[in-house]
Design a protein that fits this description.
heterodimer, A: about 110 residues, mainly beta
Chain lengths: ~110, ~110
């Protein structure tokens, strides 16, 4: 089946720890994205990548890091520098990074900092 | 700064009612407007609108875009409990997708 997978579904972290959220797609999409969703707010863009080995900061990149070593994978690391990391994290992909393509979303990872 | 505003923030209706959800936007480089439905997890794609005045339709859902007045509406007729969800409006501005906060729709049986 083609699609986007994210793991884990739920993640608990102690303060001061870095954690990495996985995102994989087998849609052969060039572009991938990470969003954060908080209650009562829209999705906010953390990082995006239009092509392998290249990525750009979104609107709220501070405290996060990414890599794009393979076309199908775009992991997100939430570092200890992120002051309020508890949120729902969504990964998306689109055919190209030209903006006009529909983005398709994974099922999300809910991160809770204890 | 790019901005997308949805209204109302939440809505409760009875099965069979018709609802209209609103989305207005101010962005620097408009390319298209998208509607998504989110039921607890991944937003699922509903419509992409690029041209003014052309209605997109899928079953009981329809949507239209007005690029002069900078807004879009999403209509749902004969609502069902399965329509209960958060409806997200997003605008493609340049290479980025800018989301509104969403409208929470609850359909009571």
């Amino acid at each position: 089946d083609g699609g986007i997978t994210q793991s884990p579904k739920y993640l608990f972290r102690k303060e001061g720890q870095n954690v990495t959220l996985s995102c994989e797609q087998n849609l052969n999409h060039d572009a991938m994205y990470w969003y954060r969703q908080d209650p009562g707010q829209g999705l906010r863009l953390i990082y995006y990548s239009q092509i392998v080995n290249d990525f750009q900061k979104g609107d709220i990149a501070e405290g996060y890091s990414v890599s794009r070593e393979k076309k199908e994978s775009f992991p997100l690391t939430v570092t200890s520098a992120q002051k309020n990391p508890t949120a729902f994290y969504l990964c998306a992909s689109s055919l190209s990074g030209q903006g006009a393509d529909t983005q398709y979303f994974g099922p999300g990872t809910r991160l809770t900092v204890l | 700064e790019d901005k997308v505003v949805q209204s109302p923030l939440s809505l409760v209706v009875h099965e069979g009612d018709t609802v209209t959800l609103n989305c207005s936007y101010e962005v620097t480089n408009f390319r298209s407007l998208l509607w998504y439905k989110q039921e607890k997890k991944a937003p699922t794609f509903l419509f992409m609108l690029t041209s003014s005045g052309i209605e997109k339709k899928s079953g009981r859902l329809s949507s239209i875009l007005d690029k002069k007045e900078l807004f879009s509406i999403l209509n749902i007729t004969a609502t069902q409990t399965g329509d209960s969800a958060v409806y997200l409006c997003a605008v493609v501005s340049g290479n980025k997708l800018v989301f509104g906060a969403g409208t929470i729709l609850r359909v009571k049986s």
